[in-house]
Write a structure and sequence with these properties.
52% of the residues lie in helices and 8% in strands. It is elongated. The protein folds into two domains: 4-76, Winged helix-like DNA-binding domain superfamily/Winged helix DNA-binding domain (Arc Repressor Mutant, subunit A); 112-273, Glucose-6-phosphate isomerase like protein, domain 1 (Rossmann fold, 3-Layer(aba) Sandwich), CATH 3.40.50.10490. The chain has helices spanning 4-11, 17-28, 38-45, 49-58, 64-76, 93-110, 114-126, 139-152, 167-170, 191-200, 238-254, 256-273, and strands spanning 130-134, 156-159, 178-182, 205-209, 222-225. The protein is built from twelve helices and five strands. By secondary structure, it is of the alpha/beta class. The protein has a five-stranded parallel β-sheet with strand order 2-1-3-4-5, sandwiched between helices.
Length: 281
């Protein structure tokens, strides 16, 4: 099915002048269309509500609600559609952002199964090697996880490296290893085949992905859903970073004595190489 903007361009020449006014507004404000109801769309376009209804039926929608459902589905899939709704009296954008971030953190952490977290941390701590996979928007979280875990234990790799493929990174893995996959919506197509391949080879997987993911969790031994909801177009990864911190700390506590020794050795190397700025006295 064609998206709305393509349908509008295909039908534009056959639209009435009033319908074109609506079409022009939509094409100019496509990214925040999800925030308007049919009455608001009619008002800002300067046409009647029946004109809006006729336009969307002409385009093949049963009504404006069907269009908004389509846009919501796109937003849930990760398409960055903005919400341009105004603020309520006394409300501010930072306040709304704060409330949404709290909601994400609460959903992510309050419902977390402590036993499964402990199992995953123990597996990551005891694995022969840990391979972390994260691409597109998941890459910063994967990179941060690698940076934290490498402080606690050795043999932690990030894949694929820039410009490289995954197969070379996977070939030496065994069931004694663990793969940590960070895969958020609008993820590359290779994630599902990767998880299936790892399951067939009996290599344990820790998976971080959004709660709406349906087919992926069953392919992982440990799955932790991470809400990405935000006020507007771009997803929020605050909950993902918080979960990454929690998981890395749990791994450190699994190997606390060796982890502390490793951290001190790394700190000594920082000093030897003069890599980090010294704190002010």
């Amino acid at each position: 099915m064609q998206p709305l903007n393509e349908r509008l361009r295909a039908h534009y020449q056959s639209l009435s002048p009033q319908e074109r006014r609506v079409a022009d507004f939509i094409l100019d404000h496509y990214d925040d269309l999800i925030s308007y109801n049919s009455a608001e769309l009619a008002r800002v376009s300067g046409v009647s509500k029946p004109t809006v209804s006729r336009l969307f039926k002409r385009l093949g929608y049963s009504g404006y609600k069907a269009l908004r459902d389509e846009l919501r589905a796109l937003r849930q899939s990760g398409v960055p559609l903005a919400d341009a709704r105004g603020l309520a009296d006394g409300d501010t954008l930072p306040a709304r952002h704060y409330q949404q971030e709290l909601a994400n953190l609460n959903q992510c952490l309050a419902g977390l199964d402590a036993r499964r977290l402990g199992e995953a941390a123990a597996a990551l701590a005891g694995a022969g090697q840990v391979l972390i996979v994260g691409q597109r928007n998941a890459y910063p979280v994967a990179l941060h996880l690698r940076q934290q875990l490498i402080q606690a234990r050795g043999q932690v790799r990030l894949a694929p490296q820039p410009g490289q493929t995954l197969a070379e990174e996977l070939v030496d893995l065994t069931p004694a290893d663990v793969v940590l996959v960070v895969a958020f919506r609008r993820r590359p197509r290779l994630i599902a085949p990767l998880l299936k391949s790892l399951r067939q080879r009996k290599i344990p997987v820790v998976l971080l992905c959004e709660p709406q993911a349906r087919a992926l969790p069953e392919l992982a031994r440990w799955h932790f859903p991470v809400p990405l909801d935000s006020l507007s177009a771009f997803d929020s990864y605050a909950a993902a970073m918080s979960l990454a911190s929690l998981l890395a700390n749990a791994v450190l506590h699994e190997v606390l004595a060796d982890g502390r020794r490793r951290i001190h050795e790394i700190t000594d190397l920082y000093d030897d190489l003069d890599e980090l700025e010294k704190p002010s006295p």
